[in-house]
Amino acid sequence: MANYLEIKQQLQACRSKEDTFKTLVTLSKTLPRLSAEEKTEQHKVKGCESAVWLIMEEIDGIRHFKADSDAKLMRGVLVAILSLVEGKTFGDIQSMDLKAELTELNLSSYLTSSRTNGVFGILDKITVSA
After folding, report:
1. pLDDT tens-digit profile of 33-91?
2. Rounded Cα gap, residues 9 and 42, in angstroms
3. Which helix H or strand E contains 33, and what residues bound it?
4. Active site positions, annotated
């Protein structure tokens, strides 16, 4: 999985909406696809404009995430979000201000109100799921 700081630098270097879109689409290609069996209602994130699935697994106190979306743009956003939380403990994730971190990625021009609700749904599922 891509390093969050590298992703942040790539997105902050974008000078136009088109650059940001291209960067997100490029990032989306790095996210492994979920199988049809993994795309269940239980894993579906509520409130997203596009279909988004998020799976969390905890091994020895460390959280690992898998996610997918039917939209390339959201897949790119998922790469950014997961790069923040992958391989961290629940306590680490709880102590992070994920919304503030994502604000620094300059994604606001892409996050319509319904997409923003979807992103908040993803963050809630990450910070609440046990």
Report:
1. 999 999 999 999 988 778 999 999 999 999 999 999 999 999 999 999 999 999 999 99
2. 34
3. none
4. 48
